Amino acid sequence: MKEFLEDLKNGIDRKEGAFTPIHLEPEEPKLNRGEILRYAGFPAAVLRAKGKGKEDESFMEIPSDEELSKKLEDVIVLTKGQLTFRISYVCAKIDRDADGYPVLPFEQHSSDLKRNLENCKGVIIFAATIGAGIDRLIRRYERTSPATGILLQGIGAERVESMVDAFNELVKEEAKKAGLKAHPRYSPGYGDLPITVQPQLLKLVDAERRLGITLNASLMMSPSKSVTAIIGIE
Amino acid sequence: MKILDYMRDNFIFLDGGMGTLLQEAGLKPGELPERWNVTRPEEIIRIQKSYFDAGTNVLLANTFGANCLKFDDEELERLINAAFDNARKAKEESIGSQEKFIALDIGPLGRLLKPYGDFEFEDAVEAYAKTVKLGVKAGADLVFIETMNDSYDTKAALLAVKENCDLPVFVSNAYGSDGKLMTGANPASMVAMLEGMHADAIGANCSLGPEQLIGVMEEYLEYASVPVLIKPNAGLPRDEGGKTVYDVYPPEFSECLKNLLEKGVRIVGGCCGTTPEYIKAVVEKAKAVKPVPVTEKNRSLVSSYTHAVEFGKSPILIGERINPTGKKRFQQALRENDIDYILNEGLKQADAGVQVLDVNVGLPEIDEPKMLETVSKELQAVTDLPLQLDTSDPVAMERGLRCYNGKAMVNSVNGKDEVMEAVFPLVAKYGGFVVCLTLDEGGIPESAAERVKIAEKIIKKAAGYGIAKKDLIFDPLAMTISADTTAALSTIQAVHDIRFGLGVNTSLGVSNVSFGLPSRNIITSTFFALCLEQGLSAGIMNPYATEMMNVYYAFRALHNLDANCTDYITYAQSLPVLAPAGASAGQAQVPKTEGGADKGSSALNVSPLQNAIIRGLKEQAGNITKELLKDTKPLDIVQQEVIPALDIVGKNFEEKKVYLPQLLMAAEASKEAFEEIKKEMAKSADGAGPKRCSFVIATVHGDIHDIGKNIVKLILENYGFDVHDLGKDVPEQVIVDEVVRIHAPIVGLSALMTTTVPAMEETIRLLREQAPWAKVTVGGAVMTQEYSDRIGADKYCRDAMETVRYAEEVEKSLGK
Reduced to 3 states, what is the DSSP secondary structure of residue A91? Predict the structure, then answer.
């Protein structure tokens, strides 16, 4: 990534190996229990109100419910050793077409993405997943214990989001070092960027081989706790 | 020379990477490499010739992604034919003098199979079959299935090969750095399944470098009785100046593979990042190594989609509780298609410590083949224990074995020719570990010697089908001592003689021995101990019987099968401390009644059961209900305890005092109470008692996520509705048929994705045509009032409680 950012900064055009995906196995990010509960159906406002004044875990705190807290801890234990944190990404320079739309290594014509990538010279395109283990757990519990199932859903969503947040931060830092600025990530399904770009995007980062991500007929990813996104570099 | 003959005494050298070389030659990202067979044949021939020149024996034709999901039939045939033309040309032009073979290369379809994905197992078999047939026609010498990261997908591909040709087949899986396939299988489980289905060589390729795959290879070599192969990457890829490079070069690569050849690996090559140079180095290094003979390892394995269970070392517990015989509640569940009840029975036994689950769903009035397939599929989605398919119907057995993800136990055959001739061909095809009962046309012999004779006959007959002794386990049959007090002695003798005389595994359905006697567990568990001492390998038993578990853990500790007595100590600590005399279980566990304050229950003076439900305490809710049932009518408990508690929770949810996880915890606790109540009612003649109106619920076609639907179902059941759950991804007509069949007044449809809303609309259209009386409510992540109106639903329900209220409304309008 460093070389790419420096080349981007210095306006060096890279052709060779421009689209070869890079594999990353980041460390497990810190757990945010408030976020888990938000994904499991608690409104953010309630969590914020209860955790007011607390600085840790993004000032969200779980409500004072002994049984729920115990249940959540039990379910967190279930996921131990079942998650694998993996990312695959490619770096690419952006060209613009006649109307100013970014030309990316996958076909799209999204004006919302155009806005997100305003002033950007390059992008980092990535897919990330916490693996199939969480889906196995969800299958195991969703029918026989929906309460466990929904907490597992929450944990899975929180884990993968925390991982890509951390990755986005990393890109930001590296960009800053190179004297550039990284944008917040943008995913298919946001605005007018359709999820029909998923097959191209996943192929680009060799997601099936490297991360085990496949798409079903409705273009949903398996493992379900996976994310694809684009980070613009200004 | 045929490849199987050649490989008996020689190493086989495979080829190396293709993708990287094609990219260097100009293949663009996203371009399908198989198209180059036709558009750029000279490049393919050049690369493949260089592999033959380097010493490759088995070259993979450029057909890795050649399947009918990526190409239409006509192009597929053209590409596969061209791939073989190119490979043959490379073979002719090569200067290498070694034996050369060309393999049909089969990679994954790229679609994840159910239950994790949305692709049907049988559709995958059919897709692979197309490629296999074309490859055979194009002149393949063998088939090479590779880079498979899912055991079920691997089975589909291998089954397609076995059903469509007689060519040798090698199978190679892609392991992650955790030593498992992406969907969880470890090497031993793959060995069990693939050997059972008669793959000719098995092993690993891709994803890791040779160094990281040593552990995986050692496990293969330990268990496999067929040649083992490896085709690793050139180490791990990394970014160097914007170019992906691999960190292992030919000298280290070939050194590592040489070490593996010395350990017993017989077939080697390279995957991503490797080039002819790597293969040349490997061929050179291998000259100094003599092939290690492939030997029969005699390991008796069954497997699930994650792990294998071995028989013949430590005794194995097989849970017997999934069986309707003599169990009214279980029979009711089967009749009502209540799969969740059956799944729970499996999960409870898994928690109790069994290693294999027996699955018997035979009941005269149900479609057993269909039920066995459904239950074994559903069980495999929730538990990773291997299953023992228990049926006397060969049609049901085949359905179960075919869809099984792994190598199953087969229960059972006996000495009757007719039975063996029906079951052994299935085992030969799908693999299996077969329970053999020592009885025949003449019944069960009294003496041990006669039972041994039947066992010998079965071993001989099995061998004729290519089924080895290691894949048979003998049940010399436990008979009750209340009828004949010498019965146990004969059985114990037979266990000993079969185990040590014939050298095969043994199992017993142990509980028969005490039939007709009081306090049966005392006799059964002692008999179990005596049999274990005489070499019993497995017991089909009730894991809820503490006496049986005591024997099992003590036996393992006493026989040096439990290092540091760790398992025994853990078990002993889990045993409940005996309650002091006079305190009943219910009283002992009645919780403190404060603490529910934030859930809005403190103001109301609630009973212990209500408190347990409101606070979501499952176990307590069950225990208190059990106590109450001793002197309270089941329906009174429902009316006076459970429903009022649910109303409190439901109201709190509607008023946003509690949220979804808490609502669900309460619902699960009340379900636990209902389960006790149902058990009690199943004992009486009137069966399940009155139910509220029926409610058909399903996630629509194309949608594979159903947690929302399960939540609604659970809450509806709590309120007493007769819920018919059709599952997820349910075809439109299936939903309509069920509504018509039971004349359901109300249907709930769930959709999570916008892409599946049209399926919902179509379902509603068909319902209006064929079941105009039915009210339709819709819900799910993408549903809105607007969507609901547009597709013509009667009601949009935001959540489970709203659905309950609507169902009550509909019921009222029916005047029920």
Answer: strand
